[in-house]
Design brief:
By secondary structure, the protein is mainly alpha-helical. 70% of the residues lie in helices and 0% in strands.
Length: 227
């Protein structure tokens, strides 16, 4: 149970830190941290947790990562469902804590509450097709970096830095398109508190990251089949 608990806590931190930065710290027009700050926040959550729990659970924090690592032969199929359950529960609990904090401000309006969306709910007004392609490609590259940087052939001890910086870069690219998911647990954790359109569009932020994660892992194994 320790590895499932670690995934719960790690995903809790990812959603609270990443989405919390968007909901709380990016909300001020003059003093807010903006896209760059939110991107760094997501990257830092993964980097810090990778050092903290990587030796316990592998620090997946993301159903798409768990699926990708299974495709790469780095993760046992029997642990997939328990990992995903722990990750989604961690994300939802974090969303609840964030909602409790944010709603304590006078005039609070949940709005999008850092949810992911396409069409009229895309920050930049991007279409469903744009969102789909973006999420698949970004998650594929994310898994490519994860599998490569955690290889036995890679420089030991630096994987958390590479993975955290990769997630930061992914957010810098894709926040305008989908508000950046690449993680079904992150998307679900806040969508349940928005309801309505966020839940209606949530399917894409499960399908695209999982497909992308599997493709990225497969691509790395194709390039380095002996890993």
């Amino acid at each position: 149970m320790k590895k499932y608990a670690a995934e719960f806590v790690g995903t809790f931190w990812l959603v609270l830190g990443g989405c919390g930065s968007a909901v709380l710290a990016a909300a001020f027009p003059d003093l807010g941290i903006g896209f760059v700050g939110v991107s760094l926040a997501f990257g830092l959550t993964v980097l810090t947790m990778a050092f903290a729990i990587g030796h316990i659970s592998g620090c997946h924090l993301n159903p798409a990562v768990s699926v990708g690592l299974m495709v790469a032969g780095r993760f046992e199929r029997k642990d997939l469902l328990p990992y995903i359950v722990a990750q989604v529960l961690g994300g939802i609990v974090a969303g609840g804590v964030l909602y409790l904090i944010a709603s304590g401000k006078t005039g609070f309006d949940a709005g999008g509450f850092a949810s992911n969306g396409y069409g009229e709910h895309s920050p930049g007004g991007y279409s469903l097709l744009s969102a789909l392609v973006c999420e698949v490609v970004m998650t594929a590259i994310f898994l490519f970096v994860i599998v490569g940087s955690t290889s036995k052939k890679a420089q030991a001890g630096f994987a958390p830095i590479a993975i955290g910086l990769c997630l930061t870069l992914i957010h810098l690219i894709s926040i305008p398109v989908t508000n950046t998911s690449v993680n079904p647990a992150r998307s679900t954790g806040v969508a349940v508190f928005v309801g309505d359109w966020a839940l209606a569009q949530l399917w894409l932020f499960w399908v695209a990251p999982i497909v992308g994660g599997a493709l990225g892992a497969f691509l790395y194994k194709f390039i380095d089949p002996d890993d």
